[in-house]
Amino acid sequence: MDVDLLRPGMIPIAPNTKLWFEFLIEPSLLEEHLNKEHPDPSAAELLIKFLYSSMERPKDLPLIDIDDLMDNSRIDKKIEYRKRKKYECLKMLAMKIVSFWEWDLNILETRVPISLQIIFVQDLLELVSCGLNLIDFETHNAIENLSALKDEQVFAIALFHRWTLTVIINYTLSKKSSFSLGPIQDGNEDVLLKLEMQSEHSEQMLLRLLDLKRSSYTIPTINTFDPPNEIRPLNCYWFKGLTVSSAEFRSQIMYDYAKYKFFKAQYGEAGIYFKMCKELNMNLTPSSFHKIKLEELNGFCAACSSEITENSSLLMQFLYSTQTNHNGILRILETDNQIMEIPMFLRDSLELDLASMLSLGKFTASRDMLLHIHTLNAIRRASVTSGEIVLLPPEDYVTKIKFNLRGPEIFLKDLKLCMQIKDKKFRKNIKMFVCNVLLKCPKNLVKDILKDGHEEIHELFGDEDIHQLLTLHEDIPTVNIDMSKRLNRLKKTQINNINVQKLLLKNKISIEYDPSNLRNLLQQLHKMDMDPVFSILDINYEWQVPLPLQSVLIGLPNGLFKYLVIILIAKSKEMIKLNDFERAKLLLREAETETKINNNIMYSKIRQLISWEGLYTEMLQFQHEFKNFAIGDLVERCKQCLEFVQSDNLIPRQEIAEQCILTLLNVGEWEYLTKRHYNCFKLPLAIAYTCLDVNKFKGTKKSAKEVWDLILPVFDYGYSATNKRPLDGDPQCTQNRVLSQSDMMRVFLSLRDQNAIQIVLSLLAKIQNFLRDESAMELIMPFLNIWPVIPNGMNIPLRNITEVLGIVLTESLKYHPNHLILLKLKGDLQYVMGHYSSAMKWYLEAIVIVSDYFARPVLKPMIEDYVYKRMMKCCMQMQNFTQAAILCLFQEEIDYATAYKCASETNSCDALDEYYDYIWDINLLEFLIYWHTKLNHQEHRQKLLKTIGALELNANNNEEIKREAANIRKLKFLRALSQQYVHP
């Protein structure tokens, strides 16, 4: 059970928990409570409770209509009873909470529903009005002299118009993102539309407030508001507020105004006010009222700026330069080497992008520019890197210096610029970097660098270090190596490691799928391993090669052809298991190409077998992809393959022959199949015959006895297990044996044709209906009348039939997700199994398809009365009685007795009166009004009276208007159900 700590009496609560009305009795407790680290209830919960309670209806006055919150013509009526002391006290407590938040609009808008925000800002305007009627916000612009207003009035007006603009921004952004703010949770978009309509007035009012010439403003604090009691009336001590400077007050207005302009994509004007706001904040000492984050302000200024000046940040200059032909980029990089502001990854990206553009001719620059950038980036990288990494040889950079005539000059020029930095750690890193460069340069290049950059190098190295650098290349000792001993040791190592090399080659073969690479690896392995007993299948024991191919290939002598063909076939089988049929077909085509090098009988036989494996792969792809597969010549190839089944020569594998029959069955080649006779493919052939017969007689003839006789024994436990045979195509199979359940399921799950699927499902549904023997629990399907009756003496478990039916139906829906009959059958199956919520989901899925997602009325022939009746019973079982009552109205003959019984249930678990707006039947509405009047449910009664008074439900309307009103409400109701059951 949900527990609301704001409602007393639900459970014993902790001693430190405060109840909301305690603050009404003793307002002085509020500040103490809010200052706790984790107050319970929180400030937001209290504010919501105070505002809701201040809107409660006295018995002698009408209820506030939230839809009219922004209607100024009704303000007087709305506030006349809210001037009583209880409601005034609640308003003052609400003011205290928001002032405790220091008037932070972001907290108010994210924690409080939009309707309560409106109540709060209207209360604030009313509180400061003093006869000016400021609550009528449309008249704010009519105030001629704003300077004559008091500080609290200026503050309230500014807060209201700032709130108007910021709530529009937050609400719009919350709709476009994954999180929700207060406004969108409330769902009252009409109020926000009215706010948007008057946003222009708010903009004008904020601009007028910016022109006020005051040195300071007084902002209300928690001590400003004094709630009334039995003796003392309501009072506000405005002088107890917080005094803020004019600059702080104006900058807050500028910031919110500029944010709204930015939100409206008026970046020029937004930039002006962001810049003015930034200038005000430079010399500002913010108080608790100041809610501007300088990081956000700088980001907005940068986003609105169209010009980059020398005063802009170095990062902004860098980004601007990269987008404008790289003007001044060297100066920016030189400066960054001193202040290190630009991230290194951006500098590296610049280097790569510029090199690419120069090589492609997309950018023209001086030939030395790229080397300058290389050098500056190398210096920057060295200045921030630890010593160990700096000592790594920069061969790439040294190569660039060597192949540029001005390389040493550019290196020394850029080095001189960074020598002005006196930081010891920096100079140490630069010294290591220069030393590393010189060690990798040729001796003549080192001399040129040391000669030309004598002054710069001497700042880093002493005379002794320079002398060592000049002589290092000549002092490297010569080492004499006995190559004969080294070669002998190498030969021994190769002999010892031959098994390791073979193992590595086998591992590479296992993971390689490119035919040309496989050929090269197999050639290397064949040279190493001349063992006559070696089998290529030993590389991976999971590899599978079809038995006919394996028996033919194993008889061939070991060699590259044999190894390659076996591996290509085995890897194609791997790809089939992964449903990667395209790669499997590619590998088989390569294997078939290998057999074309010779035209003798053996190679022709292998080629034919591989060709059938390719056909088998393509049939599996057709079965897996179905509607997205281009059939092409697949049907003709299947027929050609079946011609070989009963021949005396080479015959295809039994799995291939069976898949050919299933493929022809799925493409509607029933007449072709019925003219053939295969002893061991009776089930798919019987299904094809039934499909042909049903289409011919339109399901009016009981002609499906052959399929019936094949399927019934599969489920009968009375048959001996020894009588069951696998569907392996044994030519010796006889008709007195029955299918195994696994072979039956393989055929059923391979069906893709809608007619074949309906035939199988209707057969299973017929068996289930017979076993259950309850008319109210029957599964409804076409073609149920074509099946014979189940003979006496059969022992068929109902649970087994139900499981098979569920599996076949689920698989069929994968390939026909919008099939109306299958969706309704799925709902029926869930209904008879007692899964009522799931049944509702599938029935509504069917209605979604029929109505094009509730865009047009639901037609009776497509959704029958039994569907609505079962939906109604599902709702009753789940105790959603209001939903069940409305569903009674969907039937051709309305079941008023059930509808009235459901409508009068008091323990309903659904949304009750939230569904009353969807009712179009006057009789049911009148009954509900009578029932709620009898129970004294005044709120429900008022809502029903409002509903029944709608013009479109008037009894004198013509039939077309009544029908249109009913259709609109039906679709709205079904959409509400779908949100609960289909898309929870």
Automatic annotation (TrEMBL):
Keywords: Chromosome, Nucleus. The keyword Nucleotidyltransferase does not apply. GO terms for biological process: snRNA 3'-end processing. The keyword Nucleus applies. Its main location: nucleus. Pfam families: TPR_INTS8. It is found in: Chromosome; Nucleus. GO terms for cellular component: chromosome; integrator complex. It comes from the Eukaryota. Residues 505-981 form the INTS8 TPR repeats domain. Belongs to the Integrator subunit 8 family. This is Integrator complex subunit 8.
